[in-house]
Amino acid sequence: MMSNGDTTSTAPDKRKDRFATLTFERDVAAPVSVMWHAWTAPAARMAWAAPTPSVTVEFLEADSRVGGREVSLCKVAGQSDIRCEVGWLELQPALRSVNYEVVSSEGVTQSAALVTADFSGTDKRSRLAVTVQLSSLAENMEAGYQQGFGAGLDNLAGVAERTMVLERVIQAPRTLVWGAWMNPETLPQWWGPDGFSCRTTRIDLRAGGEWVFDMIAPDGTVFPNHHRYGEVRPEERIGYTLLWGENGPKHADAWALFEDLDGATKVTLGMVFTTAAEFQDAKGFGAEELGQQTLGKLERFVASR
Question: Of 136, 184, 146, 122, which Cα lies nearest the Cα of 17?
Answer without folding.
Answer: 136
